[in-house]
Amino acid sequence: MSSVWTKINHLDKRWIYLFVLLAVALPLILPINLPLSPSGPVMSFYKAIESIPKGSIVLISNDYDPGSKAELYPMTEAVLYHLFKRNCRVVMLSLFPAGPPMSERAVARVTEDLPNLQYGTDFVNLGYKDGREAVLVEMGRSIRSAFPKDYRGIPYDSIALLKEVENYSSFALVISISVGYPGTKEYVQYAQGRFNLKLLAGAAAVSVPEYSAYYNSGQLSGMLTGISGAAEYEELIGRRALAAKAIDAQAIGHMVIILLIVLGNVAWFVTKGKKNHE
Amino acid sequence: MKREIPLAILLITGLFMIFQYFVPHYAISDIASKIQQWAIIITSGAALLGIANLLRVSLDQAIARKQDWMYKWVVIVSLVVTGVSGIVGGIEPGTFFNDMIYFHMYTPMASTMYATLAFFIASAAFRAFRVRSWQAWLLACTALLVMLGRIPFGKMIWGDFPQFVDWIMNVPNTVAQRAILIGAALGAVATGLKMIFGIERSWLGGGD
Amino acid sequence: MSELIGLWIAALLTVFILSFLYKDNPFYKFAEHLFVGVAAGYVLALSWHNTIKPNLVEPLFYQGEWILIVPMAFGLLLFTRFIPKMSWLSRWSLAAIVGIYSGLAVVAIAEADFVTQIRATLIPIWDQTKWTQFSNQPSIVHFIHLFTNFITIFGLLTILFYFFFSVEHSGTWGLIAKIGTGLLMVGFGAGYGYTVMTRIALLIDRVVFLLGDVIGLL
User: Are A166 and A266 within one domain?
Assistant: First the structure.
């Protein structure tokens, strides 16, 4: 019996890789449509958007790159859809160089469902800006001086929507969808308190534990917590899309990791006992 | 001269950026705004320096035919082609830079590079996550509860599971993160002040 | 047609990188170096179009904002690092960057991560509303909520004590430090759980791409 555990203990890691791959792939091929229920931070996020007046202008900062698009791009799409449904207007920007094309694609996808939206009046993509924290602080005084032109090179003053945008005070909400530095943490540190922002976060799951402290202290008014948070939010806005489709595979994936931790420890415990006995 | 001027620049800019936070007079905030706009330009220079350095190091290795030299040509050619196509051809949707390079090359490579971490974390969970002490037990139990509570299976097992995990995140986890934030903040403020006042000079590098 | 070619290039590059899981090989090495080059070239183009051109070149050369020569000079001085005899000049730019960002950081971090976090901990030990909630609807979750404020206050103190090395962690102090360690472990455990969530999500994205977009199985 213990030789079985010894074998398990020395299992080639490539078998584990294959196991994980199958665990993720099979639920995608054969979906089970697990039910979703929103957690506290996701509910707060949803309510914060529901509470702003229709027609408000909202800033979305897409601070991530393709390496994290799996978790964060579904949030961008869902948030845009929710805001547009509430007739809000959106200004997007990015502190990550690889962020702006994600904003462009998300808007393109959402406007397939909501076709009457116009660039320049309903939404704008200001693109990327070097400078990190300096940009965040500068936007508190003037967004125009940090972003003289948008992503496509159109001057700030020629864009109708931006005529109503001076600095952070022009926004009913600021939403930071981010994976790391610079991102939500820097928005909290450099902008939220100083300029009194109502700040929401779309966080990669890996950042959620740290951001929980900001959520608890009220510096964040709501938070989408990784892919599961995105899926719960999709359920709330009635548009099950990328994240909701992934949740079956996510659930099985978690179960497999739990199984691997338990199995690894049992095998280690049994074989350790055997070694001690010898 | 070689050390005094940089230290003076640092002292003046550092103290001014602290000062402007407390004095929101328009004259002060105008100067601060200019400095922030300049910082945007200077940091973009730093980004370009990084790229130039990558190009230089890759070229050196490629020309000297060091180990894996042919792959250095891949770096050089792809960097130049991507950079030139973006600068000359534009970056908007519909361009070669956006449609081909960003969505069909950069995106799949970046996504897959990070996706491989799923395999490594699974392998580490099996081979290295050993519960040897009471601290490890606590860590493992919390990890399992969070993993289970954040997926629909959690609620199937126990109706209040998601609320229970919310509590873990909002109370014990928050307490731990808050303590780390406070500790790190004290460290960051101390280091920042030491730099501004010229006590910490490691950023100057060696030499005179 | 170009979309189809692009799709297959993307699929091929995905498989090249995944091939590393079997073992290191030339295909992976090719993709790895291609990634580095493309990522650097991408930043170059974006910095040019979104920062250097609109924030420096156009205002300086087309709108006559000559004062921008100063940050341009600071930016260019960084490149003296490539010239050993002049490399000390790059310290001027570095000093400006470190000065500006340290100045901004000192106050911002003190305000957000120190003052506000402590303020969020200044709460009553006992929250009567939670007791009312528990007595109206007794459950395990409502029961543990009774201790929320207590753990928030004293838990933080125990961890901060654990970080404090001027007193030996033995006897009662040792017990307090141990409680702090335990709470830290809960935080790290939560961190591990959420890291798993991120990693699995990233893998799902690639599987969806290969099985759905490329093969058309989903």
Answer: no
Residues of C in Cβ contact (< 8 Å) with A153: 49, 53-54
Query: What pTM does this model have?
Result: 0.95
Residue B97 CA to residue A227 CA, distance in Å, equals: 29
Looking at the fold, whether B22 and B104 belong to one and the same domain comes out as: no
> Do the beta carbons of residue B106 and residue A98 sit within 8 Å?
yes
Is B45 found in the same domain as B27?
yes
Number of domains in chain A: 2
DSSP A17-51: HHHHHHHHHHHHHS---------HHHHHHHHHHHH
Q: Per the domain annotation, does B119 fall within a domain?
A: yes
CA dist., res. A58 & res. A45, Å (int): 14
Long-range contacts of B204-207 (CB under 8 A, 24+ apart): B204/B3, B204/B6, B204/B7, B204/C91, B204/C94, B205/C91, B207/B2, B207/C87, B207/C88
Q: Terminus-to-terminus CA distance in chain C, angstroms? A: 22
Pairwise CA distance, residues A277 & A258, whole Å: 29
Domain ranges of chain C: 1-64, 80-122, 125-218
Domain of B12, in residue numbers: 1-88
Residue of C196, A204, C182 whose CA lies nearest to B125: C196
Hey, are the CB atoms on C197 and A28 less than 8 Å from each other?
A: no
**According to the model, what pLDDT value does residue A2 have?**
66
Report A:164-183 residues touching C (Cβ under 8 A).
none
| ipTM value | 0.94
Strand partners, A178: A63, A203
Are the CB atoms for A229 and A39 separated by under 8 Å? Answer: yes
pLDDT digits (tens, 9 = 90+) for A204-218: 999 999 999 999 999
Q: Walk across the sheet containing A57-63 and list its strands.
A: A123-128, A89-94, A57-63, A173-178, A199-203, A222-225
Domain-embedded: residue A199:
yes
Q: How many domains does chain B have?
A: 2
Q: Which chains touch B (3 or more CB pairs under 8 A)?
A: A, C
Is the distance from CB of C148 to CB of B167 less than 8 angstroms?
yes
CB C115 within 8 A of CB C109: no
CA–CA separation, A175 vs A199, rounded Å?
6
- Identify the closest residue of chain A to B128 by CA–CA distance: A264
Same-domain status, A76 and A52: yes
Burial of C84 (0-12, 13-18, 19+ CB in 10 A): exposed
- Candidates C13, A257, C192; CA nearest to B119 is A257
Residue A148 near chain C (CB below 8 Å) = yes
- φ, ψ of residue A167 to 5 degrees: the values are -155, -160
Kindly report whether the peptide bond that precedes residue A182 is cis, defined as omega within 30 degrees of 0.
yes
CATH number reported for the structural domain that contains residue A140 in this entry: 3.40.50
Residues of B in contact with C67 (CB under 8 A): 34
Q: Are A213 and C132 in contact (CB under 8 A)?
A: no
Per-residue pLDDT reduced to its tens digit, B149-189: 999 999 999 999 999 999 999 999 999 999 999 999 999 99
Mean per-residue pLDDT over chain B, rounded: 94
CB contact under 8 A, B107 and A258: no
Instruction: Examine the fold and report which residue of B108, B129, B150 is the final residue of a domain before the chain moves on.
Output: B129
Identify the DSSP state of A155: B
Q: How far is C31 from chain B (nearest CA, A)?
A: 7
3-state DSSP assignment of residue C82:
helix
* Residue B197 to chain A, least CA–CA distance (Å): 21
Residue of B132, B129, B164 whose CA lies nearest to B148: B164
